[in-house]
Amino acid sequence: GAVVSQHPSRVICKSGTSVKIECRSLDFQATTMFWYRQFPKQSLMLMATSNEGSKATYEQGVEKDKFLINHASLTLSTLTVTSAHPEDSSFYICSAWMNTEAFFGQGTRLTVV
Amino acid sequence: SQQGEEDPQALSIQEGENATMNCSYKTSINNLQWYRQNSGRGLVHLILIRSNEREKHSGRLRVTLDTSKKSSSLLITASRAADTASYFCATDRTGTASKLTFGTGTRLQVTL
Fold first, then answer.
1. Residue A59: CB partners within 8 Å, gap ≥ 6?
2. Which residues, listed in sequence order, are joined to residue A109 by a DSSP beta bridge?
């Protein structure tokens, strides 16, 4: 089946630094990818829709300058958390659709210290 | 918020018993999907039910959908310890590369 690969699976960074998370569709092309955030013991909340070749669409309340999304190819979207703060510590998950099914990456556990 | 609600929030059963989780949503949908998430991991797709379907089976899973009540249920029969995970329902409105709206999730614990 289709696979979405996310990297890294776990990252620890210092406050004020930036972290890049990659999301790749391994055996299919995805013009659209989605980035979700999940806080401990909570559900997934959509952050933004990543569109290949154009600007991302952000959900209300998500700072576009803080969460930079680049979808430069049909198989890769990146999320960069800029000037990270401890409150950005969370689990970030990407997804992409193939036909009528959404496939999810393994997630990235970000800890900002 | 368009997020759906799931109940119970947490469920603890013994191996062999059945587990039922319910999901309610707020808007019209194209389809509803159930996902499983092991602690700290990504999501695994379990089953998709379309808005014109009322019931679907896959192995030990049975999903129902009542669009008039905007609700769905997931039944896991003959549960196993390995079924311990969080289960989420997710809805989409267009069915094609659209954003999913997730329910609040049910944490299932299956004990030996």
1. A45, A46, A47, A48
2. A10, A91
Within the 43-102 window of chain A, which residues sit less than 8 Å (CB to CB) from chain B? 43-46, 49, 91, 93, 95, 97, 100-102
The verdict on B101 touching A (C-beta cutoff 8 Å) is: yes
The verdict on B47 touching A (C-beta cutoff 8 Å) is no
What CA–CA distances, in Å, run from B106 to A76, B20, B35, B85?
A: 31, 10, 11, 8
A4-53 tens-digit pLDDT: 999 999 999 999 999 999 999 998 999 999 999 999 888 999 999 999 98
Report d(CA B97, CA A65) in Å as an integer. Answer: 25
DSSP for A12-33, please give it.
Answer: EE-TT--EEEEEEESSS--SEE
Interface touch B42/A97, C-beta < 8 Å: no
Question: For residue A60, which amino acid is it?
Answer: Q
